[in-house]
UniProtKB/TrEMBL annotation:
Belongs to the LDH/MDH superfamily. MDH type 1 family. It catalyses: (S)-malate + NAD(+) = oxaloacetate + NADH + H(+). Homodimer. It comes from Corchorus olitorius. Pfam families: Ldh_1_C, Ldh_1_N. This is Malate dehydrogenase. GO terms for cellular component: chloroplast.
Length: 366
């Protein structure tokens, strides 16, 4: 008889003591130890395959400034059973590090293009923060040149390996990368507009924080809808629809609108060349991903703002409140009543958005 594994060697040691005794006792004990070993192995195998109930989530760009804290927070999310971390650099290190956390999700790392397909196969949710961030003096559109191609390649992988996954797209410029992703999925014949969501949660998170400061409230009790897109004037906070209901002076309205629209630039300048928002973005991305997973699970009443395919305006994409469900963005809410200030803001937002959306579409169609 061959004894290879550690468990088998233990059986061999015990057997050696038992064999000279009663053959019947030996047989039953040997049988019991074998059963115990196979159940231990089954449990380990089950965990290694992500057998715990929950969703399978991939992060593409997982070793980056957003990717790392995002991966850590997703590793802590009880709705996640398997977490795939993909990047073109450092994925093994981040994976080894996070895999020591005693939380339920099984973490696996994937490095470089040849491992992209394995990273994506079987995923329920794919979160994409891959790409370069801004430096002071740059607009988000300045990132298009590099990030457009990155998003195209990653979305081709999604179309091939997990066409039914929900996609949370973070890479900037979101106003163009979401249309790029849509065109890639259309080309592959896998496009379902409900499953493609541009992440604008950080705008809402900032709006809640800044409005709470002005009102002297706890930001957790404040909810500000932010519509339009994710860049400059396309970020349109609807201060007339803040919950709890409140009112602002014209000066407060100006201050808050400008601060929310320029929140990203405020961080880029403070970081002085070392990148853009990463920690608040990881927080926002996890807030949004968790909402998507709760929607997938079938929870009722999950509503978040997101940049999605939309008929709310004449533009093909627009950020508004959406209801998240088992199939993604199942309902897209209208803008609701706007005041004069917001109506003017909406026209400015639409004018800029139209060009950014078209730029993304043309990038794939050309
Ligand atoms: N939607 C939003 O609200 C926000 C979006 N962003 C955007 O998120 C993106 C990432 O920002 P950071 O994490 O700060 O940048 P980062 O440079 O720290 O990390 C980006 C990661 O992407 C990886 N990467 C590059 N090419 C890749 C590829 N082809 N496949 C997989 N991974 C690839 C890099 O190796 C790096 O680890 C930027 O485009 C940034 O503008 C940032 C903040 C907020
Ligand atoms: O400003 C940037 O470049 C990053 C970003 O999108 C944000 O912080 O909102």
């Amino acid at each position: 008889m061959e004894f290879s594994s550690e468990a088998n060697q233990r059986i061999a040691r015990i057997s050696a003591h038992l064999q000279p005794l009663n053959p019947k006792v030996f047989f039953y004990l040997f049988f019991f130890l074998k059963m115990e070993e196979s159940s231990v192995l089954r449990r380990a195998d089950c965990r290694a395959k992500g057998g715990a109930p929950g969703f399978k989530v991939a992060i593409l760009g997982a070793a980056g400034g957003i990717g790392q804290p995002l991966a850590m927070l997703m590793k802590m999310n009880p709705l996640v059973s398997v977490l795939h971390l993909y990047d073109v650099v450092n994925a093994p290190g981040v994976t080894a590090d996070l895999s020591h956390m005693d939380t339920g999700a099984v973490v696996r790392g994937f490095l470089g293009q040849p491992q992209l397909e394995n990273a994506l196969t079987g995923m329920d949710l794919v979160i994409i923060p891959a790409g370069v961030p801004r430096k002071p003096g740059m607009t988000r559109d300045d990132l298009f040149k590099i990030n457009a191609g990155i998003v195209r390649t990653l979305c081709e992988g999604v179309a091939k390996c997990c066409p039914n996954a929900i996609v949370n797209l973070i890479s900037n410029p979101v106003n163009s990368t979401v249309p790029i992703a849509a065109e890639v999925f259309k080309k592959a014949g896998t496009y379902d507009p409900k499953r493609l969501l541009g992440v604008t949660t950080l705008d809402v998170v900032r709006a809640n924080t800044f409005v709470a400061e002005v009102l002297g409230l706890d930001p957790r009790d404040v909810n500000v809808p932010v519509v339009g897109g994710h860049s400059g004037v396309t970020i349109l906070p609807l201060l007339s629809q803040v919950k709890p209901p409140c009112s602002f002076t014209p000066e407060e309205t100006d201050y808050l609108t400008n601060r929310i629209q320029n929140g990203g630039t405020e961080v880029v300048e403070a970081k002085a060349g070392a990148g853009s928002a990463t920690l608040s973005m990881a927080y926002a991305a996890v807030k949004f991903a968790d909402a998507c997973l709760r929607g997938l699970r079938g929870d009722a009443g999950i509503v978040e703002c997101a940049f999605v395919a939309s008929e709310v305006t004449e533009l093909p994409f627009f950020a508004t409140k959406v209801r998240l469900g088992r199939t993604g963005a199942e309902e897209i809410y209208p803008l609701g009543p706007l005041n004069e200030y917001e109506r003017m803001g909406l026209e400015k937002a639409k004018a800029e958005l139209a060009g950014s959306i078209q730029k993304g579409i043309t990038f794939i169609k050309k």
